[in-house]
Amino acid sequence: YIFHILWRCIMSWLKIFALSTIAGLSFCFIFSVRPRNMIVCALFSGMTWTSLQYLQSLGVNSVFATLISGFLLGIGTEIAAVKLKSPAINFIIIGFIPLVPGLKTYQGILNLIQGNQNAGVALLFEASFIAVAIAVSIMVSSSLARAFRLKVKKK
């Protein structure tokens, strides 16, 4: 019985990862990513969404979960950029698409239109904080990677 529950849990997370990877692969076609980078970009997209969902299932606030997932993605994309000799922005754009707070923005505007000002403003503020978390995670991870590369080059 325990193995059955464990198996269902693992398969649930694998399904989330697989579906978000496929979604990331479709965005690779939309943004005309080089074919040699498509799989890596899609895997970053899957990793980002799965880590966000996992952190939120642990009870982490959506803003902090986005910040942590974005930081992990930023570090991963900087490593992939060096290994694949491609600009990191190629991987960052596809990887961060799952983190964009489109649904919260839509729900916030919908609540404002329907007359629920408190709920609408709260959702729009949360969407704004998530956007700031995305920007901060990109900035911090890129800065740390650049500092680490400069330190390695000096040695």
Describe this entry's structure for a reader.
The protein is mostly helical and 155 residues long. The chain has helices at residues 2-30, 35-57, 62-84, 88-96, 102-114, 117-154.
Which spans have pLDDT < 50 for at least 5 consecutive residues? Answer: none
Gyration radius (Cα, Å) is 18 Å
Helix-strand makeup class: mainly alpha
Count of β-strands: 0
Defining traits:
single chain, mainly alpha, 155 residues, globular, 0% strand, 6 helices
Question: What is the gist of this entry?
Answer:
The chain contains six helices and no strands. By secondary structure, the chain is an all-alpha fold.
List the topology elements.
Blueprint: H1 2-30, H2 35-57, H3 62-84, H4 88-96, H5 102-114, H6 117-154
Helix pairs in contact: 1-2, 2-3, 2-4, 3-4, 3-6, 5-6
